[in-house]
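Lecture 7 notes: from sequence to structure.

We start with a single chain of 241 residues. Read the sequence below before looking at the structure.
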Amino acid sequence: MSVHKTVVITGASQGIGAGLVKTFLDKGWNVVGTSRRISETTSLDRAGRLELVDGDVSDPDTAERVSQIALEQFGSIDALVNNAGVFFTKPFLDYTIDDFRRLSATNIEGFVHFTKHAIRQMLRQKSGGSVVTITSSLTDHPIAGVMASLPMITKGGLNAITKSLALEFASDNIRVNAVSPGVVDTPLHATNSKDYLRSLSPMGTITAVQEIVDGVVYLTESSNITGEVLHVDNGAHLGKW
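Now the structure, written as tokens:
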């Protein structure tokens, strides 16, 4: 059994997820990363402490397989990062119920499947643990023109369950937190104008992936922080600017 701690990361193939994989490996963690086609990813290659598992997070079988592989390869699950997410904008009246189901399947059901497996294992281990989920600063402060009403039902729900679970499992030393980004320089925004993206926060800057990664690592390793929604958004959650 490995003496290193093990973290499970969803949505691990690109953007924030790939940044999380690299940083946790650099810090000496074992990493189990999953996304739909992550085994085709070529940038993640440190096989000794890294396992890659293909799967859709909305399928309960994916969480089960990922958890089994983590235990078989590394012997524990000490942290989970719920990073996988779907986000797309359109006017409220144009969203369909199928859009809502697609958002809910990944953002909410995926969270539930993976978090249940992780917390069950942490309770068995009796050594505490950490769950960190990526949400969105748009839940606190919508921005005129950014029409994300349905995605924000799901992200706002993740902020709420983060606080509920933090209290429910506090006596087990299982901490549950969230990182709430604004605009991050990821493939999601590859086609957006940089000037437009800079206008979406009062500091007028675009967040680098590593800033979000650093926030996640900080919460994962901070033994006294639970129930926190950490905004890494250049001030966008504060209000009108």
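The beta strands are 6-10, 30-35, 50-54, 79-82, 129-134, 174-181, 229-232. Keep this in mind for problem set 3.
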